[in-house]
Amino acid sequence: MQYENTIFMENSLRIEAMDKLGIDLQLLSPNPLTMFQN
Asked: Which pTM value belongs to this model?
């Protein structure tokens, strides 16, 4: 799957898509696997 030049990688495209949907904020959280350090 290619993610280049998509809303997953390009901030300007993501903000534009969020504006179209009326979304003002985006919540980010780490992947749960990053919490395990073994």
From this structure: 0.64
